[in-house]
Amino acid sequence: MSQPPESLDNNESVAPLHGFHGDRAARSRPTAPSGLTVAVSRESGARGGTIARLVSKRLGWPVYDQEHLEILSGDPVAQANLMDDFSPACVSWFEARMVYLSRSLSLSENDPYYRLVRLVVALGARGEAVILGRGAGHLLPSTTTLHVRVIAPLAERVAYLGQYLRLPVAEAEQKLHSRDAQRVAFHRDLLKGTPSDIHQYDMILNTGHLGEETCAEAVVRVAQVRWQQILDR
User: Fold this and answer.
1) What's the pTM value of the predicted model, to 2 decimals?
2) Rounded to an integer, what distance in angstroms lies between the CA atom of residue 192 and that of residue 52?
3) Sheet of strand 63-64, all strands in order from the earlier edge strand to the far edge
4) Interval 36-40 mean pLDDT
5) pLDDT tens digits along 48-72
6) Which CATH number is correct for 37-232, 2.40.10.10, 3.40.50.720, 3.40.50.300, 3.40.1190.10?
């Protein structure tokens, strides 16, 4: 995917974006999870990775894509370090969420997806992260997760993927359908559902109509409002 620009704009009227934590001067944050998580689902070629990186930069939160998640889920030391400073409330929340998901998804510790699920839940317990793909928006609770779906018209997705991979149109379209099918299979195998169900998302953004920067700014603004609503409860 293309790399994001250094900033989206120079609009000084936008609320503080870097390292956004909500208005903690007036209210204390909930004990667990420790912050909001933005989970980005995307169609292949819709530039969801670019949107995730732009949102990450604007909010000052780390972004975890499929490659990062696969590396971390295979590294027990890294996962232990991630949870080292968890409060007792975060530990309890994490354990309860894992019990719930293990039962609802019929997961055992020997399941090939178990370590991935455990990692995503740990990131959700910590909060203040952007997670790209891997069903994060389904694994984490809607109360502290902003679940975003990024789409684009088929022709634009094919053109983007062809340019990115330097493939002719026919091969790019074949590759795109293959990638989408793999994601559908992942959702079916782990989550027993499909990513095409629109009602599971908080936001659905069309990069072909709105562009990357507008989509990213929309996610940032809603994330700020969403977390402030949580603090206001």
Assistant:
1) 0.83
2) 25
3) 63-64, 129-132, 37-42, 145-151, 203-206
4) 97
5) 999 999 999 999 999 999 899 999 9
6) 3.40.50.300
